[in-house]
Amino acid sequence: MIILKNGHVVDPLNHINEVTDVLVDGNRILGVGDARRFLCGGDGKAVSLAHTIDAGGCYVVPGLIDHHCHMYPLANIGLPAEAVCFASGVTTAVDAGSAGCATYAMYRPFIQLSKLTIRAYLNVCTTGLASLPKSLECVDPATWDEGAIRDCFERYPGELLGLKLRTSHPIVKELGYEPLRATVRLAERLGVSVMVHCTNPPGELSELLDLLRPGDVLTHMYMNQGSCLVENGAVIEAAKRARQRGVLFEAADARAHFGLPVAEIAIEEEFLPDILATDLTKLSMHLRPTSFNLAMQISKYHELGISFTKLIECCTVAPARQMGMLDVAGSLTPGHAADIAVLRPVEQTYRFGDRVDGDPNQHTREGHLVYQPVLTVKNGEMVYRDVTF
């Protein structure tokens, strides 16, 4: 048994935002509240049997969900998922389209053997991102194998969340938005959602947004290459219409899918992310001053004016709901898997930005509060603990 005492518990799903205790029994959440209420039974002996950790001065939150990253071996550029995720408070992660219908089956053993809970989007390209970084994937609908794609969703229900398409101009070229139209039509036939990468689109972002359906995900919402979320100093009307009809907006910044000026204007208008993720690969993990990891994303967006509670919702409840996993992940509900992150707020000056150092298009800002992961519990097991905690 583990008792996390005196931490500031933030559990948006259960409307908990207070200093209290979290109790873990085996691999499940036993409860949130005064530990004595759950354990004493009048004599206090049960408490002595527990491993008690003082989380005073820290935030205790549901295990974080990174809804957008790329993992090895699903992608050659993939990150070492458990090492990076557990050390940043992430207990569930989504591979955002590294594999296609010809490659997903061979990587399933990795997914199933990992202690990290992993789900995936299936790339419409038959081989996914296997050709990166040497060459871009082929997204011409004439090359897709719809039968094999359908077979993947039928053989692996619950593992695949939807279809993924990167619709940047260098990838789609003269095809423009036809691959996106074809992806949406295919998703409609399969009954799944679409995640679309929108950086440097082949046309107006408003046209892209108008093609998306309720439950589809626009990722890299604050990118600033080509047509983007902000025009003439304001968020475009097409984005507001899309949100009203249920399109989800994800901030997943990686090394270059983010623009500070765009984000600042949108956040000032309170056009906030539905989902906060990273788009990490081995090329961007732990890279300053860009996304670094999910804890740094939380720190950065808090500095940009989004409340901590909202940000925790964006990387727990919101992705769990999108993934159809709200009954097992994204909260500290008693009986659910004991997935927990403990974050220590540390006052220190740091620099964050939207491009790597040396990029002439880089913008940077100065932050003053970092949320440092100090403990990650996955299914009741302490899979990461900072030496100072």
Molecular structure report:
With 389 residues, the chain is α/β, with parallel strands linked by helices. It is 25% helix and 29% strand. Strands 1, 2, 3, 4, 5, 16, 17 and 18 form an 8-stranded mixed sheet that branches. Strands 6-7-8-9-10-11-14-15 form an 8-stranded parallel sheet. A two-stranded antiparallel sheet has the order 12-13. A hairpin with a 4-residue loop joins strand 1 and strand 2. Helix 8 packs parallel to helix 9. The longest helix is centred in the middle third of the chain and has 13 residues. The protein is globular.
State the gist of this model.
The chain has 389 residues and is an alpha/beta fold. The chain has 13 helices and 18 strands. A hairpin with a 4-residue loop joins strand 1 (2-11) and strand 2 (16-25).
State the main characteristics.
389 residues, alpha/beta, eight-stranded mixed beta sheet, eight-stranded parallel beta sheet, 13 helices, globular
The helical percent reads 25-40%
Rg over CA atoms, rounded to whole Å, is: 21 Å
Query: Structural class, from secondary structure content?
Result: alpha/beta
Spans of at least 5 consecutive residues with low confidence:
none
Number of helices: 13
Main sheet record: 8 strands, mixed
How much of the polypeptide forms β-strand, as a percent range? Answer: 25-35%
Mean pLDDT: 96
The outline comes out as: globular
Number of strands: 18
Gap between N and C termini? 18 Å
Topology at a glance:
Layout: E1 2-11, E2 16-25, E3 28-32, H1 35-39, H2 45-48, E4 51-54, E5 59-62, E6 64-69, H3 81-86, E7 90-96, H4 104-113, E8 117-123, H5 146-155, E9 160-166, H6 169-172, H7 178-190, E10 193-197, H8 205-211, E11 217-219, E12 230-231, E13 234-235, H9 237-244, E14 248-252, H10 260-268, E15 275-277, H11 294-303, H12 308-314, H13 317-322, E16 340-353, E17 364-378, E18 381-385
Parallel strand pairs: 1-4, 1-5, 6-7, 7-8, 8-9, 9-10, 10-11, 11-14, 14-15
Antiparallel strand pairs: 1-2, 2-3, 5-16, 12-13, 16-17, 17-18
